[in-house]
């Protein structure tokens, strides 16, 4: 076994992976390389997700604000319903909204809801855009419920802050409406976060051992892409930036010895016994042919996340592949076979 997962990658050519364990099943979604749909698959074991049937639960609009670049869907169970948070744009090019600020895309955060017990049945209803308080590049929303309060954490550009995106948190009145103003938790400031692009994005939350761990990714999406972490005490005011401690150095980085480059945009799931599992994407090469945006080979991977005697995560390093992966010029068919 490889750190509690028999086979890696767990899903080929699906970046920004999100895995949710519910009622003995693993539910998986991630960015489709065509950026035109939201997909869902499930299996009883993480290593069986690649072979699992993939169902398209939503397709981009023909025009309008949800017609291009569908990015980073996440599936969550809140109350008795399923929710998918995702980013969508009206076009596939960036804009400069304020002179002197970085060029960004035009994404906003949106929500789908399904009230059926089985998310593969029932109807996925569009609940619309999440009003974050201002209009700018926004993406990578994740949700967590702590002590009965639902929070949204996401990445968004602020025009008075250098760079493409910072991380914000806000309480929620319901799964598609904020109950209070956005609070900035972190912005790109350290050298590792500002390589290529000034980025804090891809947040994910893990609650364990009386602490709240908020991971995120920084830098451009090549070899420099890496993960950082903020930590708060469970029971503290999570809407107070002073409650959070930010690591100055990345906690999960490329490992040439393992053939893994640009690990990041993670999520967390667990084994049947509750052992935490780190899910993330990475590539197996550094030379990308063409525009990196359209390189399809960021594969979803998973490995057990150990903790030390003091309750600190032992992040380790990305594990080597045990499943064959495509080359930089090879594209998989929708069925997961080279074409």
TrEMBL record:
Metal-binding is among the record's keywords: no
Gene Ontology terms, MF aspect: hydrolase activity, hydrolyzing O-glycosyl compounds
Family that this chain belongs to: Belongs to the glycosyl hydrolase 43 family.
Protein name: Alpha-N-arabinofuranosidase
Matches recorded under Pfam families: Glyco_hydro_43
Top-level taxonomic group: Bacteria
Segments crossing the lipid bilayer: none
Record keywords, A-Z: Glycosidase, Hydrolase, Signal
Any one GO biological process: carbohydrate metabolic process
InterPro entries per the UniProt record, alphabetical: Alpha-L-arabinofuranosidase, Glyco_hydro_43, Glyco_hydro_beta-prop_sf
Annotated Gene3D superfamilies: Glycosyl hydrolase domain, family 43 (2.115.10.20)
Organism field: Cellulomonas pakistanensis
Region (Disordered): 309-339
């Amino acid at each position: 076994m490889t750190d509690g997962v028999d086979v890696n990658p767990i899903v080929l050519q699906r970046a920004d992976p999100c895995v949710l364990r519910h009622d003995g099943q693993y539910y998986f979604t991630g960015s489709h390389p065509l950026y035109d749909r939201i997909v869902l698959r499930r299996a009883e074991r993480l290593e069986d997700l690649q072979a699992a049937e993939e169902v398209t639960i939503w397709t981009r609009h023909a025009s309008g604000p949800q017609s291009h670049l569908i990015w980073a869907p996440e599936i969550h169970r809140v109350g008795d319903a399923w929710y998918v948070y995702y980013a969508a744009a009206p076009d596939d090019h960036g804009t400069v909204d304020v002179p002197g600020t970085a060029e960004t895309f035009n994404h906003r955060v949106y929500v789908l809801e399904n009230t059926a017990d089985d998310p593969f049945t029932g109807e996925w209803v569009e609940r619309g855009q999440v009003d974050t308080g201002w209009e700018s590049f926004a993406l990578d929303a994740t949700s967590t419920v702590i002590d009965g309060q639902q929070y949204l954490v996401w990445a968004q550009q602020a025009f008075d802050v250098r760079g493409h995106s910072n991380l914000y948190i806000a309480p929620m009145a319901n799964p598609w409406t904020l109950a209070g103003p956005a609070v900035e938790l972190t912005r790109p400031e350290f050298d590792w976060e500002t390589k290529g692009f000034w980025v804090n994005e891809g947040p994910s939350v893990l609650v364990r051992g009386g602490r709240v761990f908020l991971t995120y990714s920084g830098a451009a999406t090549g070899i420099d892409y890496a993960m950082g972490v903020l930590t708060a005490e469970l029971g503290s005011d999570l809407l107070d930036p002073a409650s959070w401690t930010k690591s100055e150095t990345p906690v999960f980085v490329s490992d040439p010895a393992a053939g893994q480059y640009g690990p990041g945009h993670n999520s967390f799931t667990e084994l049947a016994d509750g052992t935490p599992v780190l899910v993330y994407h990475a590539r197996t090469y550094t030379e990308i042919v063409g525009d990196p945006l359209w390189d399809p080979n960021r594969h979803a991977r998973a490995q057990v996340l150990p903790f030390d005697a003091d309750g600190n995560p032992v992040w380790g390093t990305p594990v080597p592949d045990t499943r064959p992966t495509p080359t930089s010029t090879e594209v998989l068919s929708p069925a997961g076979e080279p074409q």
